[in-house]
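[Q] Does anyone have a clean structure-token version of this?
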Amino acid sequence: CRHWRQVALADPILWGTVIFNDPYPWVRSFNYVERAGGGELALKLIERQEPDERGNEVVPPLALEHVQEFLMKISPKVHQLRAMIFAMDTWPATIEVLKFFSHPQHRRPQSLEHFELHRPFMADPGESWAPPGFASPYILNPTMLFGGEAPKLRGICVSGVSISLANFPAANLRTLDLRRIPFALCPSSSDFLDVL
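[A] Here you go.
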């Protein structure tokens, strides 16, 4: 029994898919990431949580500093990322993710095959895309992800976020899913043609 435990703990494939649903600071989840060693990683961070049957929050909402800390901790492992999924409730948390994956230092996720970034946004007529009093170039200007360098990228889904398709790494792309973006911030038809 001890032998099988050692085998399981040493196998990076068993630990490479991690859903960060334990409370901050995600001790259990980061232990799994460490056990994955140098193997490929598929990580999922969800800011919003469903309440339990009594209506209590299962996990407290994430502070902006928590998202920044998460990104800092995964920074040395960007080259190992096979899949990355974010579901953020707020613009500040979403912007941190956009900044991280557009920053020159983090532009080369060589193993990344799948990327998702979701921010709930249902635009009512006349509703502002940007929250009042909150200004950031990442809200009103489409963001170029990965500096155009994600050679294995096969699928991307962004919801409630505008990204740039200029120099987009589309060589192996099979799925391009863009949702809930104001018409004025949608990629142009020529941008779509360039991706094709």
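[Q] Thanks! Anything notable?
[A] Residues 2 and 178 are 48 Å apart (CA to CA).
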